[in-house]
Amino acid sequence: MISVDKDVPSFPPFSSLPPELLIEIFSTCSLTGDWHIPLTLSKVCCLWRDLIISSPCIWQTIVVLDSRCTMSSIRAQAELWAARSSPLPFSVVLKLSDFERLLPIMSCFLPNLARWMSCTITYDGRTIETSLSDLTLSSPRRILHHLDIFLKTPFEDVAGDDEDDVIFVSCGSATYRHISMKVATTKLPHAEMVNPLLFTSLDISETTFEYSVRSPDLLRFLAHCPNLEHFYFHGVSNDEGTLDAPPPAISLPRLHTLLLNEICNQRSILSHLYLPALRELHLRHINVDYPLEPYYVPEEGDSDDESHDFSQSPHSDLHTGMGLRKLLSRSRPPLEILDMDLSDMRTKDFRWVFDKLPDLKQFSIVGSDMSDSVVELFIPFVVGDGDGQEQEQEHVVERMSVRLPQLSVLKMYSCQQLSGDALVKALSARVHYTDHATPDATLATVVISSCNNFTAGNAQELSWDLHDRLNVS
């Protein structure tokens, strides 16, 4: 027989403890670091289960162990803890074994950003702690703003100068604080692994050919960014080759600014985006002087340029022009700014594009091989009223028109194939017409810089019509 020492005080059973004390005990237990504590305790008895489910404070710490979980189970855990901790704030403790999973896991918590107070990430002996409440100060509202993705090996800089341990940053006003994220990863996460990312701005930067992204993967990732208003893609001019199948067509209905820099897959990207609100398009350093693989399917317009104008980058000119054609045909955007820096097209593409941009206000081009044939597109032309074929000549009413009818700013830098005489003829004729016919939509600023065939005499002659609107250097 076992003797019981009557002098040892006996403790009341847990069932006799007041609910407030039980809740305090359970809340303390949930801070031990074991992710499953609330679930385990809720299985002891009905009383505990009811208390735990109805007590948000017990669910305020969300511990994620990625080494033991699939993304679907992590997503389910995030949704459950976020729901049961509502309306209280919560903290996330993320124990990572694979840094590539950082963004997919984070995306599970971003829908509840307003209640997300702190985040602790441990990886490979590092601990990254962020207080989101400190980032947003006393702002009554947090807004997801910018996401930076660097395609590189995380923490590859031994000195730590790459700042891969800075995940969250803040900007904005005192009233509306913007939360932005920076993530280093060797590849974009698979689309099915990521919850919708409600950032309004996205910047993706390739660092080496090893980590370059193919256009189908990029487009599938963009499909999970429905709120994007700005998208910037900086590549390393890697030719992805001919695709085996067409990429998906992606709609970004809010996007109004797109920048593509140093890429070779511009045709595939531009051809598969639906951007009905696009107002600014910046194409930079896309020209390459080596052959590119053909597009996966021939399209109308792929034929040789009838003008046969000289180009140092004929293959990239073709892909850029055909990509723009498809983008404008699909989206019909109210494009107002077209900026082409070392990004060229064929003469036939310039003609096609200029005919499709009735809202364009600013056109800037740098380092183009455009010929006088393109310059002549700025000249007003005669449009017949009616088909003109069934009518007597005296009954045909003619009127003038111009391409890019809203154009007010024209900037041309280092365009060495065009002649100064052609520029004088085209721009003088244009302002002679638009200054009188459409004075509210005429050239207000013209910049011609480092165009060797545009002489001092050409500048003097053109200034007679443009006056102080002309800037030459």
Fold and architecture overview:
The strands form four sheets. The chain has a twelve-stranded mixed beta sheet with strand order 6-7-5-8-9-11-13-14-15-18-19-20, with helices on one face. The protein has a four-stranded mixed beta sheet with strand order 1-2-3-4. It is built from 13 helices and 20 strands. By secondary structure, the chain is α/β, with parallel strands linked by helices. The termini are far apart. The chain has helices at residues 19-29, 37-41, 46-53, 71-85, 102-107, 132-135, 215-222, 266-271, 314-331, 347-355, 372-375, 420-437, 456-466; strands at residues 61-65, 90-96, 116-123, 126-131, 141-151, 168-172, 176-185, 201-206, 230-234, 250-251, 257-261, 273-274, 280-284, 337-341, 362-366, 381-384, 398-401, 409-413, 445-449, 470-472. Helix content is 26%, strand content 23%.
The averaged pLDDT comes out at 87
Poorly predicted ranges = 385-393
Number of distinct beta strands: 20
Helix content: 25-40%
Percent strand: 15-25%
- What is the tally of helical segments? 13
Main sheet overview: 12 strands, mixed
| Shape category | elongated
Strand order of the largest sheet: 6-7-5-8-9-11-13-14-15-18-19-20
- Distance between the first and last residues' Cα: 106 Å
Structural class: alpha/beta
> Radius of gyration over alpha carbons?
31 Å
Give the quaternary arrangement of the chains: single chain
